[in-house]
């Protein structure tokens, strides 16, 4: 038996002793050993063999697999990753982390051009998104508790709440959620309606906003926008993203997020710095983009519309906690083996070890929900 086989077996044994459910010799076969109802039967190897309705493997995928397995520098191995159903599934990976573009799912067809042969879509995006969803569920991010949707006064009337959500969005540009949230508390304590913002002295307003970034400009825009709202919209905010963009200091990103949070209408994807950075890292765009607005257009061209509202919140929190602008935590990321921008470099041994730890944690969670 090879050294890798011995390591794998030893790890599987340890896991077996610890969790009392893992009995498979190979770590990647854990899904077959576990008879837990939490694992979808169609995801087990045995069930896959028996399932007649398996999709045919595309020629492109078969070719890709052949070239992967015959490449001189590549040694395909299998690890477990979270699938679209948030379950563990074997994924073929190559030891050479620099060639991750060749990574694909074993039983899930290559994602590119699966739903429509004419439509471009990035490889493995569903798996990556579900992994992000799983990471977000595990750790709260500032946006969850202090995001703009949490800044309005629930006791206020609906018009005022919508206005407060817009104000929070205007303040949040290039400002941390914590800082925006605190400034919103100060504003609310001195009355946060369009009329109150018009009436407050500009210097006093600036003091209330400080240390929000660009607080002087934001104070000016807030007062101009509030005047427009009073004069043109009866102190409410406009009900279309186009009209919202006519307000001073409101751009497309803010308008689309405002439509979702204030009016509960999805009109576009809100692309802020986190979304812009992450989708470029993941190569979720046909070509790299420089501006968030370009990113929004490209992302909307392939991402199903029913995911538009979710994706902003998911990626913003993911960017705040894991995929940070500087020194992203790739070694902790569930996508580390399939992300094109991953900086994670592991040996086969550490890969198996970390995947085994993930499996053990998953099992423990299932056993003790
Ligand atoms: S592997 Fe690194 S760069 Fe890729 S999504 Fe995860 S944290 Fe971001």
Could you walk me through the main structural features you see in this protein, from its secondary elements to its overall organization?
There is one protein chain. The protein has about 375 residues and is mainly alpha-helical. The chain folds into three domains: about 5-120 and about 345-365, no CATH class; about 140-265, Hypothetical protein, domain 2 (Endonuclease III, domain 1, Orthogonal Bundle); about 275-320, no CATH class. Helices cover about 50% and strands about 5% of the residues. It has helices at about 5-20, 30-35, 45-50, 60-70, 125-140, 140-145, 160-170, 175-190, 195-200, 200-210, 215-235, 240-245, 250-265, 275-280, 290-300, 310-320, 350-365; strands at about 75-80, 90-95, 105. Iron/sulfur cluster (SF4) binds near residues 323 and 330.
β-sheet strand percentage: under 5%
Structurally, the number of domains stands at 3
The termini sit apart by 37 Å
Order of helices and strands: HHHHEEEHHHHHHHHHHHHH
Short description:
With 369 residues, the chain is mainly alpha-helical. It has helices spanning 3-19, 30-33, 45-50, 59-70, 125-138, 142-146, 158-172, 177-189, 194-199, 202-209, 215-233, 241-244, 252-263, 273-281, 292-302, 308-321, 348-367, and strands at residues 77-82, 88-93, 104-105.
């Amino acid at each position: 038996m090879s050294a890798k086989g011995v390591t794998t077996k030893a790890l599987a044994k340890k896991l077996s002793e610890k969790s009392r459910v893992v009995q498979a010799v190979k770590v990647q076969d854990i899904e077959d050993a576990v008879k837990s109802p939490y694992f979808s039967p169609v995801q087990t190897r045995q069930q896959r063999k028996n399932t007649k309705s398996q999709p045919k493997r595309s020629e492109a995928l078969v070719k890709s697999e052949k070239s992967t397995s015959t490449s001189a520098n590549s040694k395909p191995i299998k690890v477990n990753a979270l699938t679209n159903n948030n379950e563990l599934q074997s994924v073929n990976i190559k030891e050479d982390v620099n060639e991750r573009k060749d990574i694909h799912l074993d039983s899930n067809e290559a994602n590119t051009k699966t739903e429509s042969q004419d439509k471009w879509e990035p490889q493995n995006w569903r798996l990556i998104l579900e992994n992000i969803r799983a990471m977000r569920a595990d750790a709260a991010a500032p946006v969850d508790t202090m995001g703009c949707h949490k800044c309005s006064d629930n006791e206020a009337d609906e018009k005022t709440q919508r206005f407060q959500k817009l104000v929070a969005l205007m303040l949040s540009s290039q400002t941390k959620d914590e800082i925006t949230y605190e400034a919103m508390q100060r504003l609310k304590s001195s009355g946060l309606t369009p009329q109150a913002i018009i009436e407050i002295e500009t210097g006093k307003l600036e003091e209330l906003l400080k240390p929000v970034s660009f607080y002087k400009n934001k104070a000016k825009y807030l007062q101009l926008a509030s005047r427009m709202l009073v004069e043109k919209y009866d102190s409410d905010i406009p009900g279309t993203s186009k009209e919202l963009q006519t307000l001073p200091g409101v751009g497309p990103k803010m308008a689309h997020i405002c439509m979702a949070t204030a009016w509960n209408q999805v009109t576009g994807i809100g692309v802020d710095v986190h979304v812009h950075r992450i989708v470029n890292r993941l190569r979720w765009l046909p070509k790299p983009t420089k501006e968030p607005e370009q990113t929004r257009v490209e992302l909307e061209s392939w991402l199903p519309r029913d995911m538009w509202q979710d994706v902003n919140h998911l990626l913003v929190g993911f960017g705040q906690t894991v995929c940070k602008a500087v020194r992203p935590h790739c070694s902790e990321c569930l996508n580390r083996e399939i992300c094109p921008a991953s900086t994670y470099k592991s040996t086969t041994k550490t890969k198996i070890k970390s995947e085994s730890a993930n499996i053990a944690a998953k099992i423990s969670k299932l056993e003790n929900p």
